Structures are given as structure tokens and as C-alpha cells.
Amino acid sequence: MSLLEIENLSLTIGATPILKDVDLAIAPGEVVGLVGESGSGKSMTALTIMQLLPHLARTEGRVAFDGIDILGATEDQMCALRGDDIGMVFQEPMTALNPVKTIGEQVAEGIRWHTKAGRAEAEERTRKILDRVGLPEAKFPLSRYPHELSGGQRQRVVIAIACALKPKLLIADEPTTALDVVLQAQILDLLRDLVRENRMALLLISHDLAVVTEMADRLTILRRGEVTEAGETARTLSEQQHPYTRELALASMHVPARPKPHLAGSAKPLLDVEGVGRVYPGRRISLLRPTEPIRAVDDVSLTIEPAQSVALVGRSGCGKSTLARMILALDKPTAGTIRFRGEPITGKPEQALRPARRDMQVVFQDPYGSFDPRQKVEKLVAEPLHLLEKQPAKAERREMVANALHEVGLGPRDMDKYPHEFSGGQRQRLSIARAIITRPKLVVADEPVSALDVSIRAQILDLFAELNQKLGIAYLFITHDLTVARAMADEVLVMHEGKIVERGRAADVLDHPRSEAAQALVAAAPDLHRAIARKIQEQG
Amino acid sequence: MTAYLLKRLIIAALTLVLASMVVFAVMEILPGDPARLMLGLNASADQVEMLRNQMGLNAPLVLRYLHWAGGLLSLDFGRSYTYSVPVIDLVRERIAVSLPLALIALALSTIIAIPVGVFSASRQGRAGDTLAMGAAQLGVAVPNFWFALMLIYLFAVWLHLVPAGGFPGWGAGIWTALKSLILPAVALALPQAAILGRVARSALIEVLNEDYIRTARAKGLPYRAVLWRHALRNAMIPVLTILGLQFAFLLAGTIIIENVFYLPGLGRLIFQAITQRDLIVVESIVMLLVAAVILINLLVDFSYAIVDPRLRGRQ
């Protein structure tokens, strides 16, 4: 007997069809993974179950939860279900909590609302559930505000809110996508335990096939609002009957071909970072006591040779982005020197940095946020050209933009479009085009594929590899995603609490990590091969 | 928290000092010699010079500023050139009218604006919202003196509910006095309420799209509870900012409104003082108004810290 049954669910918002004939069922105690790329309708399926769809949404079909017809339920009935029998956890823990209310208030609120419990009793239960999700009162009093917690801790609070009343069904929509791999593993463990303890059903929504494979008993794969394949996790992924399933699995494990491997020690270093540190003044607690300085980056040395690809991996907050900013001369180190092509770039005036800036470009994580929405692609991609000694004429400039667009697989006609006319993957291509237009020697890429779907991610990784082979561009990849490091890097550096704790050839570090920090990263990183093998053992 | 409040307090004090310098400097630059004005057109140059010496107008600039500013601190504003009485006496009477008027208007505008904002935001794009925002648009556009005249016509001339103007004084009983302040307060409050209501609406709409609103809904709270418990407090931050900024306009509005309703308030006093070149009275009232605006904005800063816990830890 299923707890949740979705049959022939179709959803349109305005005139746009979102879901078509979706079927899905979950039994008590079962974990079902809902997998698909962005825009496939995963989140909308979840919001349909919660009846929290946007205005103008129209649903058809049948959704039954515990014998209740959800699509026909009144708002009062839904309010009674939400937060009591159905809990939900969202993707973005940084913004999922009300910034002006304490975590205690926010957890207790649902308890009081549903059980009509008094303040004291609700607080007692709040204490218990927060303790259960790993936030014991001794360290995390109920009076804490969300901004005083880290991303992983906030996600625990959100899980506490969702699970406070032991729901029969928990819907988790990309619950770990915004977290680093170590936190991800912790949160997934917590969810797994909660499922086991309370025979709770879990609908786990994710674009990450490896995560879902580790967690789910059964899989449903969505594409453009339709279910392409559904079944037991092990069988679905080992047989891969539907071509789309195979496509997803292949894309998740994609390693781009780089026929000309880089030979270490073959040339003078392009970038030489020597004993670099960055200290921030700490937060003042009292007017009288001096502040404890924060060492974001502490005595880091590294070199990158021409055409070499280096990955800097580490957990969020380990200092890797601060280091990248200093290499790009966007931030000044408080110790050490950074040399680019033998020239120190630290402490130089902006004018003197121009040649270095021209040969050192950057690709950011967010393909949505890194473009001015009111400018055309021609202008956006041509932006770094002001760094050239001789400013190109208009026709020449268009020619250069067209070339750069061609190199990233876009056409010259795209020049006259605005950023919003492109998909996420295309926008990341645009930011790569912008980065390579000055023919740089080094590109720093800060989580360049984290925001992308797996199939697009594979294409972008291919593009990076191709540009490395064709143009001899060296890379510094900043990432917490070890599969990117494995796919793209010749050398891997592991950063932990501001220090480089391990370095070596990519395969060596990732297969046989020696430092504790590297071991933790490797152990926590979801791996599709491993996950499938384990599932096959479990499910026979 | 204390560090934040202390810093705000220091900034407010510095602003006040700076403002006093500007006010003093502007009054120095303005044409019109108070001594000549007091003595009339037929006075000889010697007589004027003598009076200037007597009034301390010939002392060095810095000295005169310090003397004036020091006087302000001890509530000694000097003597009015036209009435020959201490300015403080003139002002004290008038504040008893203007301060309650401004406070009632401020309270009234908030009491009207926030429910209107909530109403509109929760019915975004529907008929009720369109109607409320249309009315707000009208409220912003209509000059308050015209609105005041309409109020007088309706409530005083036609319905005889309140007096059309004048102020009986607080000695006549609180209710009687308040009755003559109601219409002016409404006339002052309405344009403010219209602006605040629009700000409250847009702030709420923005907040209602935040992720934490969805979290609150997923908890099972009905829409109304989410709106009042979660959204409103977050939306208060921009509303408070505008409230503080608009207070200066509200004070400026009292000058017009007090003239329309014939109220013996600061607004009318400053109006008269300007026409009579009674510079010392003008200076004093301007400083009072500046202090009031700075004080209100200081209170706004303090209330930020109450509304938003993230500010408390910051410097």
C-alpha cells in the first residue's frame, strides 16, 4: 500500500506545460529518487504534492496522500498536512530561514501550530529535534539567529523544522546541492537515519545521479516534464534501458579526452605563488579586547606551468576563493609574493598590472549573475579587450568576438543577443568566450560547472579540455567537486583551513589521499560507479 | 549591539553639529541686517552701528557661532528681534501645538499605511490592490493644502464636527484641543501614508518571494499567519527607512498646514519670522526642526537593530 500515489499528473502554468502524465508512488519507509535536469519539472512535482504551486498553475490527474485527495483538498486541509504529515526541505539553506527569528522560534512555530502545545512543551520538543539533527543545545542555544550558523547547520535547522512532527513523508528538494561534499555526506546520513528511525518515506529530488543512487531504493527519471524511466535503483542504472538514463549516467562520469598530457617540470613556471598569506581582522566581540585575526590563507606556495591544469580542492570556507582572488590581483596578500611570468604582481599599481590581467582571465560559477543583463553579447565578450595595448577598431573587434564565440561553440549571430536569451550552459560558454578573447595564458575557473546540469557540465568540461589542447591555456580550477578535479587536472592541491595540506598528481591524490582533509573529501565525494556497485549488492 | 547604538549616537551628534554650522553660515550669507531692520529705514548709520555692537553682531564669526551654539545647548536661543522676548518663550508655546500635530500625523500615516500595504501585497494584481494603489497614487499627487481645504469644507463647514481652524490651547481641555488638531493631522498624514503604503506593499511583495516564506508555508502556517508573522517584520526595514526620511517632509508640510488651519505652531512662527527677517527666530526653529529629524532618524536606526538581529552584532 503506497503512502503517496501520483497518477497521470499533468501541470500547466499559464500556457506553459510543465508536467505531463507523471506517475510516482512511495511506500512508507521507502526512499524514492526523482532525477532530472533543470527545468524537467522535479521541483514542480514536489510543490504539487505540497500544493504550494505558483498562481496560474493548473493540475490534472490524481495525487493521493494517505487516502487524501491532494488536488481536491481545501487550503485548510493542506495546512493541516504541511509540516505535520508532509515535511519539506529546500535547496538553499542560506535563505531558507527567516533572518529575524531565532532558530528556536522557527522550529517551535510548526510544533505549536499543529499540536496546540504550550510554549514550554513546544520548546522541549524543539530542543529534542534540534539535538537529533546534530545541533545540541549546549552549543547551539535556541536563541541563535540563522546568520550565526553556517550553511550546513542551517540546513540541519530546516530538516528539524520539516521532521519535528515525525512526518510520514519528507520531500527533500536538492537538499545538499549548495553544500560542500563533506557536509553533503553528513546531511545525507542524517536523512537516511531519520528514514530508518521513523519509517518515514523520503522523496529525494536531485540532479546528481550519484547522490540519488546512494540514497534511493527506487528511481524516477524526469525529462521535460515526462517520466522516461522508473524502477529499482540498481536495475535501472545497471541495465540503463532507456537511452536518456544512459546519457545521464555517462555524462555524470564524463572525463574529457586530452590526448596531449602535460609533462610536469617541462617549462619555467607561468604562475609562482610563494608563501602567500591573507589575514583579515577578526570580528570585534568587545570594545576592550583586541580582535583575533582570521588567517584565511596561510603560507601557501604553488606553481602552475604553461598549459598545465591544476585543481585547488577543499571544503567551503577553506580559503580557496580568497587565494584565487589574490592570484587575480583582486585582493592583496598580507604576506608572500605572487609572480606571473616571473614578474611580481603584488603591490603594483593598476596600470602596471594590465599585461598580467590580459594574460590571466577568470570564469565564475554563476552563469546568471556574471553578466550585465542590459548589454549585448558583443560588448560583454569584448570587455577584456580594453586591456590590449592597441585598441582594435570596431570591425576588428567584432571579428575577435566572432572568433571567440566560434571557439566556444556559439555562432557570430549570437553577438547581437542579450544574456537572458541564452540557457545556463550557453551562458557559461559566453563567460569562457569572454575569458579567452585576449588569448590568456592562464584561466582561473571558480567552480565553473557547479551550477550546470550534468549533460551541459560534460560539454563545458570538454570545451575546457579542447581549449587547453588547442590554445595551450593553463588552468587553475577552484572546486569542491572532486570529479571536476579528476576529469580536468594534472595536479591536485588540497586546501584546508587556509593551508595546502596535500599536493600531487591528480590520480595519486584522489585515489590514495594521505592527509586527513583529503581523505575526508574523497570519502564524502559521491561516486556513481561505487554507488551503483553497492546498490547492486543491496538489491541483488 | 551597544557598539552599533553608540556609533549611531555619535554620528547623530556630529550631524547635528555640522547642521548647526550650515544653518549659521547660511544665515550669515543672507542679505538683510537685523539691526537696520529693527531700527527702521530712517535710522542713521551710527545708530545701526551702535545696535550692531550691542547685539554682538560685530564680533568675529567663530566667536559668534560658539556663543550661539553654546546658547542652543543651554536652551538660550537669544531674543527675538521683532518681539523682543526670549525666543525660547515663543518656541515653547508653539511646540505645544506642532509637536503633537507632527506625532499624531506620523502615527496616523503609519496606522493607515501598513494595513493598506499588507492588503495590497496580499492581493497583488487583483482589484483590491489596484484600487488601493490608485488611491495611493492620488494621495501622493494631491497637494496637502487642497486636501486640507476639502477636509475643512466637509467636516467643519458641512458636518460641523470639528472647528475649521484655530487652536483653543491645551487649557481648554484635551479633547477640545485635540479636536482642532484632527483635520490638520489627517491632511498631513495622508500624502505620507500614500507614500509609505506603496513602500510597504513593494517591500512585502519582495519579501513574500523569499525562500523563508516558502519554508514557513511548508510548516503548515496559513498564508495570513505567514504574512503577519514572517513577512511583515522583514518588510519593516525599508518602511522604517522611508518613515525616517519622510519625517523631514512632514515637518515642512506643517508650515503650510498650520497656515491653512490657522494654528499657532512652529510652522506659522517660522513663516512669520522669515517675512519679518527675524533671523534669530528662524535660526532657532530651523535648528529645532533639524534636531527633530536627526532624532527621528536615530530612533529609526535603533529600531533597525530591534527588527534585524543581523545589525546587532555589527559595528
Automatic annotation (TrEMBL), chain A:
Pfam families hit by this protein: ABC_tran
Transferase recorded as keyword: no
Keywords per UniProt: ATP-binding, Nucleotide-binding, Transport
GO molecular function per UniProt: ATP binding; ATP hydrolysis activity
InterPro entries in UniProt: AAA+_ATPase, ABC_transp_ATP-bind, ABC_transporter-like_ATP-bd, ABC_transporter-like_CS, P-loop_NTPase
Domain ABC transporter, chain residue ranges per copy: 4-249, 271-522
GO BP term (any one): transmembrane transport
Keyword set includes Cytoplasm: no
Family membership noted in the UniProt record: Belongs to the ABC transporter superfamily.
The name this protein goes by in its record: Putative peptide transport fused subunits of ABC superfamily: ATP-binding components
Gene from which this protein is expressed: yliA
Automatic annotation (TrEMBL), chain B:
Membrane topology type: Multi-pass membrane protein
GO cellular component: plasma membrane
Membrane-spanning segments: 95-119, 131-158, 170-191, 237-257, 285-307
Cell membrane found in the keyword field: yes
Domain (ABC transmembrane type-1): residue spans on this chain: 95-300
Keyword Thylakoid: no
PROSITE patterns from the UniProt entry: ABC_TM1 (PS50928)
Keyword field: Cell membrane, Membrane, Transmembrane, Transmembrane helix, Transport
Annotated compartments: Cell membrane
Origin superkingdom: Bacteria
GO terms for MF: dipeptide transmembrane transporter activity
SUPFAM superfamilies in UniProt: MetI-like
Family of this protein: Belongs to the binding-protein-dependent transport system permease family.
Name of the featured protein: Putative peptide transporter permease subunit: membrane component of ABC superfamily
Organism for this UniProt entry: Mesorhizobium plurifarium
Organismal lineage: Bacteria, Pseudomonadati, Pseudomonadota, Alphaproteobacteria, Hyphomicrobiales
